[in-house]
């Protein structure tokens, strides 16, 4: 009876009171959180930043989704200074001194949880793995393949891909228009896959030679089959500040709002190729080849990594290798076309150089300057590289950052710093003739510290070689860029709008 009486009395309470009672704890919690984040008691109370950013991550997530995060954060630094609180528990820095503590000292801080959004097929890649021990175990197995000595001794795939690239460039030049980004991606994916996997992807091959199934090729556009997948993959990097479940939801919605019809076909091609690579690697192990002769996937399989995870590592190589070298090389081509004075000086050096061996290319001073300036200008990864302050905490310029704080620097801020680079948005290779220590330390093209790109040496070797031969054969003579600048959507990885970096010639 007592319970019935209570139910009767409860039913007589107006609904608005029940709603208020239900919402009250959430309102109290929200108001308490806002008050704390704005109060002098918060550890970042003295760090400048917009009021809304101190309260919520929404402004940062919004600009990340819009694809202008780097420019947005840059404007915050212009207004608030070198250290800015860009979100409740996130602080961004523009000073070279901050790089040491965040990325270099004692191995640098751990990668933040955001990197988990770049896992592939449910597996953490060497890039996305936030577990140091797990990453180290896998990286150790394959690192020998990325040493300069190993790359030079097995350089034939790079030379073969370069030869096909130069021929295709000349052929397309005859039409009066070349998409430098697409060709660079094709060359890169062919070279990297043949060197690391032992099976060339075939992006710059004729259909009869491609090795992909006729049924798939029949429905694929006559361009590099991985381009749609790469663009689709990097476009979602604008969403990477979201939690994993929200990231997946936003990715799904993004696919509906901005459909990419070629992505499914290209994904099928990449998956088919990855399956062939794993099958070949398993055959290598069955043949008991010498460890030093094993390919990238065979080394992982031999170390006990499952075929499924190994497959995801191979797909990561396809994405990362194609995107990084492709964007960097396309940027150099774009800049050489935009600045004919630079091209003329580089041609003079290259055409007059006495090259007896490959190593001689690496020491050409102006070529080095052009490549380095190209890497500075290339916005392959323009936005922040977030790290999480470890349990010991971190003190920087008398401010203590507690464990769990997200701290970061970005290539955009470092590479375009007016304090370090005069006329930062202009392509001036000569600036590296008088480079300061801070200028060299600020370069973040391949990341920094122990977690930087493991293919840095390989990429630099290839970049020098390709640019040298492009200029030596005078292929870019008379080229003009279609646009004033390379238009991108900014995210962890930049997505070139429309997927084109076009050069034209007046026939």
TrEMBL record:
Swiss-Prot/TrEMBL cofactor(s): heme
Protein name: Cytochrome P450
Highest taxon listed in the record's lineage: Eukaryota
One GO MF term: oxidoreductase activity, acting on paired donors, with incorporation or reduction of molecular oxygen
UniProt keyword list: Heme, Iron, Membrane, Metal-binding, Monooxygenase, Oxidoreductase, Transmembrane, Transmembrane helix
Membrane-spanning residues: 15-36
UniProt-annotated binding residues for heme: 453
Alphabetized InterPro entries for the sequence: Cyt_P450 (IPR001128), Cyt_P450_CS (IPR017972), Cyt_P450_E_grp-I (IPR002401), Cyt_P450_sf (IPR036396), Cytochrome_P450_monoxygenase (IPR050121)
Family: Belongs to the cytochrome P450 family.
């Amino acid at each position: 009876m007592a319970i019935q009486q209570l139910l009767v009395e409860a039913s007589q309470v107006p609904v608005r009171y029940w709603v208020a009672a239900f919402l009250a704890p959430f309102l109290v919690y929200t108001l308490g959180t806002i008050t704390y984040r704005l109060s002098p008691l918060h550890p970042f109370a003295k760090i400048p930043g917009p009021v809304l950013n101190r309260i919520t991550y929404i402004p940062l997530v919004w600009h990340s989704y819009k694809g202008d995060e780097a420019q947005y954060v840059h404007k915050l630094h212009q207004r608030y200074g070198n250290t800015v609180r860009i979100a409740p528990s996130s602080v961004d820095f523009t000073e070279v001194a901050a790089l040491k503590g965040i990325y270099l000292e004692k191995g640098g801080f751990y990668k933040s949880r955001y990197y988990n959004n770049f896992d592939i097929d449910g597996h953490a890649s060497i890039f996305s793995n936030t577990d140091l021990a797990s990453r180290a175990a896998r990286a150790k197995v394959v690192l020998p393949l990325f040493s300069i000595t190993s790359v030079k001794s097995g350089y034939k795939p790079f030379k073969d891909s370069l030869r096909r690239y130069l021929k295709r460039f000349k052929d397309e030049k005859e039409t009066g228009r070349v998409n430098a980004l697409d060709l660079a991606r094709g060359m890169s994916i062919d070279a990297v896959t043949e060197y690391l996997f032992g099976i060339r992807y075939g992006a710059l091959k004729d259909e009869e030679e491609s090795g992909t199934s006729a049924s798939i090729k029949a429905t694929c556009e006559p361009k590099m089959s991985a381009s749609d997948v790469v663009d689709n993959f990097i476009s979602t990097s604008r969403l990477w500040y979201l939690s994993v479940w929200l990231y997946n939801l936003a990715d799904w919605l993004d696919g509906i709002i901005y459909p990419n019809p070629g992505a499914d076909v290209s994904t099928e091609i990449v998956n088919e190729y990855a399956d062939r690579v794993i099958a070949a690697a398993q055959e290598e192990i069955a043949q008991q080849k010498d460890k030093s002769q094993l390919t990238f996937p065979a080394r992982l399989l031999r170390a006990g990594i499952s075929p499924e995870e190994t497959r995801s590592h191979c797909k990561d190589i396809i994405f990362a290798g194609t995107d990084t070298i492709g964007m960097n090389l396309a940027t150099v081509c774009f800049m050489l076309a935009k600045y004919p004075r630079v091209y003329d000086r580089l041609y003079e050096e290259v055409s007059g150089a006495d090259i007896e061996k490959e190593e001689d290319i690496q020491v050409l001073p102006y070529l080095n300057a052009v490549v380095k300036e190209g890497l500075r200008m290339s916005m392959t990864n323009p936005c922040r590289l977030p790290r999480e302050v470890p349990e010991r905490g971190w003190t920087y310029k008398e401010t203590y950052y507690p464990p769990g704080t997200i701290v970061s620097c970005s290539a955009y801020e470092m590479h375009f710093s007016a304090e370090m680079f005069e006329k930062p948005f202009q392509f001036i290779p000569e600036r590296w003739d008088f480079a300061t220590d801070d200028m060299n330390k600020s370069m973040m093209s391949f990341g920094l510290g122990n977690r930087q790109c493991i293919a840095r040496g390989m990429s630099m070797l290839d970049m020098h070689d390709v640019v040298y031969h492009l200029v030596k054969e005078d292929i870019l003579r008379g080229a003009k860029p279609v646009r004033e600048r390379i238009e991108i959507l900014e995210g962890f990885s930049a997505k070139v709008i429309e997927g084109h970096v076009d050069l034209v010639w007046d026939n």
